[in-house]
Amino acid sequence: MSKDFNDQEPKILRVFQSKDQVKAYYNKIAKAYDLLAEHAEQPMRAKGLTRLAARRGERILEIGFGTGHCLVELARAVGPQGKVHGIDISDAMMSRSSELLHEEGLAERVELICGDAEHMPYPDGSLDGMFTSFTLELFDTPAIPALLAECRRVLRPGGRLVVVALSKEGKQGLILKAYEWSHEHFPNLMDCRPIYVRRAVEAAGFGIEATEIGRMWVPVEIVLAVKPS
Description:
- This protein is an alpha/beta fold and 229 residues long.
- The protein has helices spanning 19-29, 33-52, 69-78, 91-103, 143-154, 174-185, 197-203; strands at residues 59-63, 83-88, 110-114, 127-133, 155-166, 207-215, 219-226.
- Helix 3 links the parallel strand 1 and strand 2 (83-88).
- Mean pLDDT is 92; it is low at 1-7.
């Protein structure tokens, strides 16, 4: 049964921007995103993809695919008999990803849509795996259980979910506190905030297979979970 993952102290912050504002922000920075963030985020994404271990012939979904680098890796992993799906709120990010996939010769293996992951257009139990990185923490606190419920709905029994996200677990150091202060006072620049990743995924009814804590300027949780059979 689902439980409240935010009962623990210290509390996670709320999200202060609307989805329309988030979409506009990522549309604005799409061309510069790799320069702004990919160098720091890529090692964490790579660890998450290793945890997911996508296999040939599988159907995999990435939520919040951004500029498309993980889509490329997933498309290579599933092979010509597999299929990768992607959903992202930013149409500019979708354009960037589409360009990259065509450059890599992988466009036929990937189907992208621009939309809200809280309402995914995929049938129940239709996917073997799901991957999301630096996206779950963009959703407001009440929306996180709703999103994870959608993930559980579209995964087949035994299907895998990997979440890579900024983490509030462990010692609350000065850098994390400064980051959260920036999120509160400049949400248009610091639109995401650290969350309790494993707790949220477990509360949504997933079985936790592995949890790893990495670090950028703040801690990052990499969680592998499975939908119960």
